[in-house]
Amino acid sequence: MRALRAFRACVAAALVCLLPVGCGQADPFPEDSTMARIRERGILTVGIKFDQPMFGYKDPATGRITGFDAEMARLLARDLTGSERNIRFVETVSRERENFIEQGVVDLVIATYSITPARGRRVSFTEPYYYAGQDLLVRIGDGTINEVADLDGKSVCTARGSTSVERLRATVPRAHLEIVDAYSICIPALIAGRVDALSTDDTILLGLLAQHRDTLRLVGKPFGREPYGMGVRKHDVAFRDYLNGLIARWLRDGEWDRAYMATIGVTGVTSESARPATP
Q: CATH class for domain 133-225?
């Protein structure tokens, strides 16, 4: 009899896994919740960067979006829709992140999005899913910049709408900031000598460095700590709590570590300082 009950349980589990929404997705979400609307639509829309290797990067040859943020988004799509392919990525530069969330252009933003009180007045954030430190990218032949204090009187490129701007102003007030819309704009200016350094989160710089190892170097002395969160519409508590539950599960079951090793980990940088504590 015990064997028969076990057999019936296995059959029932197999039937559940045949549901269109996939294994583990049979339980309904609250009516009119963001999760229910995404599941009914069958497509998750995510705001992400297109120019940040290792986090969010659109391959010009294939059009595929790669990076750690992209992997987080695919894990979410798999949980919500049953397949990581049911996702639409929307390029979201730093200055547009809050606007895209408020206007409903995207369901959420996963785009190296630092959690700050100012941003928290317009959107809601999950718990941190990643920690970064701000650093500097400089030309290989320039030995005058070896820490953030060396930026005094130098020209530094960074992105509009990023926390990097305010930290630079507070840390090196006599640096000359060149503020642009995307970090990719800083690279040719840095290589050509029009600016002396590029400053933002170390993990973003690692991705950019991977494309220009012959000409650029990472200073390697981070200053400040940046908690990255997923941004959702203000007061969407149900969606935020659902995402927090997923982040905690990925940290426990190894999905977070697999995503890291497949993206940032290929540089040889360990995840020790970047990984949130396992709940």
A: alpha beta
Q: Taking the model in full, what pTM does it have?
A: 0.80
Residue among 101, 120, 9 nearest 47 (CA): 101
Burial 35-60 (b: 16+ CB within 10 A, else e): beebbeeeebbbbbbbbbbbbbbbee
Using only the alpha carbons of the chain, give its radius of gyration.
21
Q: Each residue of 243-265: pLDDT tens digit?
A: 999 999 999 999 999 999 999 99
Is domain 30-129+229-267 annotated with CATH 3.40.190.10? yes
CB-based contact 66:263 (threshold 8 Å)? yes
Q: What is the distance between the alpha carbons of residues 249 and 268, in angstroms, rounded to a whole number?
A: 25
Q: What stretches in the chain show pLDDT beneath 70?
A: 1-27
Cβ–Cβ < 8 Å for 110, 229: no
Give the pair of three-digit tokens for residue 132. Answer: 């970064």
Beta bridge partner(s), residue 88: 45
Is the separation of the CB atoms in 59 and 74 below 8 Å? no
Domains 30-129+229-267 and 133-225 share a fold: yes
Pairing of strands 155-159, 197-201: parallel
Q: How far apart are the first and last CA of the chain?
A: 39
